[in-house]
Amino acid sequence: MSAPTQAARHHASGAAPSATYQDVLDAPPHRLAEIVGGTLHTNPRPAAPHARASSSLGVKIGGPFDYNAGGPGGWWIIDEPELHFGEDVLVPDLAGWRRERMPEYPDTAYFALAPDWACEVLSPSTRKLDLHGKRPVYAREGVRHLWLVDPGDRTLEAFELRDGEWVLIASAQDDEPVSVRPFDAVTFSLGDLFR
User: Fold this and answer.
1) Among the listed residues 95, 91, 105, 96, the one whose alpha carbon sits nearest the alpha carbon of residue 73
2) In which band, very low, low, confident or very high, does the pLDDT at 2 lie, cut at 50, 70 and 90?
3) pLDDT of amino acid 52
4) Element spanning 54, H or E
5) Under DSSP, is residue 192 helix (H, G, I), strand (E, B) or coil?
């Protein structure tokens, strides 16, 4: 018999329980499930503009940094990796690990090592969670760079972690060129993410 779901535990105890990984596993397959601060969050799969921005960014940086195609290589760039940080389970739209920190690609269902870079593509349904729930967890876990892409506003904001705080290091809008740490060895047009 499987462990009781969060809803069942809540009903039985009357108290607000912390979600567990079993709640993530029990989420409907068409929903993306995450746990932030003990709360289970489920959201539908991303809408087309969100998916396009994420996929396009993965191509723009994945080629030169993951596959050494016209760039320096040295990274693993992954779409929607499941990250386990203690009781928090996060799924960024994209994340990257320097191969010097993660020399071998793991053969596991999730990653316990914090990435060096994470990217969240903001949607109306996930904006609050991405900005106020997940961003502090990324800082706590020592993720060095965080990019926020907004398909609605056609913007990118790039942050670097300094002394535990996020510092804005670059922003771009519409068709402006993007050449930003940690991927500043290449330049691409931000507008390419939204076409």
Assistant:
1) 96
2) very low
3) 96
4) helix 48-66
5) helix
In the numeric block, which tokens belong to residue 84?
Answer: 């386990």
Neighbours of 172 (CB within 10 A): 19
The structure tokens 């994209």 sit at: 94
Contacts 24+ apart (CB under 8 A), 5-8: 6/40
The SS3 call for residue 59 is helix
Euclidean distance between CA atoms 114 and 181, whole angstroms: 17
Q: Cα dist. 57→93, 95, 121, 131, 140 in Å?
A: 10, 11, 10, 19, 25
Do the bridges between strand 155-162 and strand 165-173 make them parallel or antiparallel, or are there none, so unpaired?
antiparallel
Q: What is the pLDDT of residue 11?
A: 41
User: Mapping DSSP to helix (H, G, I), strand (E, B) and coil, where does residue 142 land?
Assistant: coil
pTM for the full model? 0.90
Beta strand extents in the chain (DSSP E only) = 31-36, 39-44, 75-79, 83-85, 88-90, 94-98, 117-121, 145-150, 155-162, 165-173, 177-178, 188-189
Strand partners, 168: 159
CA distance 110 to 108: 5
**Using CB atoms within 10 A of its CB, is residue 94 exposed (0-12), middle (13-18) or buried (19+)?**
buried
